[in-house]
Amino acid sequence: MATLLRIDSSISGEASFSRRLTAAFAHSWAEAGGEVVTRDLHAEQIPHLPHPGLHFPHREGVPEDSPGRALQDELIEEALAADAFVIGAPLYNYSVPSTLRAWTDYLHVPGRTAGTPASAGPLAGRPVVLLSTRGAAYDQPGQEELLDHAVPALRALLGSALGMDVEAITVDRTLAEVIPALDRERASALFADALDRASARGRELAASLL
Ligand SMILES: Cc1cc2nc3c(=O)[nH]c(=O)nc-3n(C[C@H](O)[C@H](O)[C@H](O)COP(=O)(O)O)c2cc1C
């Protein structure tokens, strides 16, 4: 049975758009017979990485009793046990929520989770679907490059450093309910389309891995 690791990071609870997308994706996955493991980085927050030595496989200088060691092992083992990932990645202040950023700091260890020039890392080739939600509109040329550092940063880390197979579904204008200029009707059509795409992708990916 293939395992999906579902990661959420939105602070908005049931009103969250990204959580609705990850839920739809995971629902399709489970319906196809896959197992889903959920990590909610907002409900169960992890501390910032406490020591620079945790970025390296030998953990030089990290006290033996540092709680960061056990937490990092737990997060890495959980990731290594997953066949695929779906990550709810809301855009907060031009980047990912700090809770999600903290998770990446524990996960990225060159020579442990990331490969070396000589060999690929253990996560290489694993699929990861980013479900990114943004409050504003990004229709003007150059706007996205200037103002969205969430998906690009995750692509660099998960794709370039860890070698994972990264794809993203992004939906804009989620703040249309509070900012009428964003056009409620258009926003709700965009979100409905993203929900359909997330469900379909969960189903397809599960079918290819189960
Ligand atoms: C702390 C915070 C910062 C935000 N920063 C941005 C931003 O930089 N750009 C943007 O387009 N929307 C921003 N928004 C709006 C969110 O991207 C939007 O509400 C989105 O739906 C968040 O995903 P969620 O609904 O899953 O929480 C921000 C929202 C919050 C709560």
From TrEMBL:
Domain of life: Bacteria
Enzyme class: oxidoreductase
Annotated positions binding FMN: S10, S16, F17, S18
Keywords: Flavoprotein, FMN, NAD, Oxidoreductase
Stretches the record annotates as Disordered: 47-68
InterPro entries: Flavodoxin_fold, Flavoprotein-like_sf, FMN-dep_NADH:Q_OxRdtase_AzoR1, NADH:quinone_OxRdtase_FMN_depd
Reaction equations catalysed: 2 a quinone + NADH + H(+) = 2 a 1,4-benzosemiquinone + NAD(+); N,N-dimethyl-1,4-phenylenediamine + anthranilate + 2 NAD(+) = 2-(4-dimethylaminophenyl)diazenylbenzoate + 2 NADH + 2 H(+)
Cofactor(s) annotated in UniProt: FMN
PANTHER family for this protein: FMN-DEPENDENT NADH-AZOREDUCTASE 1, FMN-DEPENDENT NADH:QUINONE OXIDOREDUCTASE
Family affiliation: Belongs to the azoreductase type 1 family.
Biological function: Also exhibits azoreductase activity. Catalyzes the reductive cleavage of the azo bond in aromatic azo compounds to the corresponding amines.
Subunit structure: Homodimer.
Protein name per the record: FMN dependent NADH:quinone oxidoreductase
Origin species: Brevibacterium salitolerans
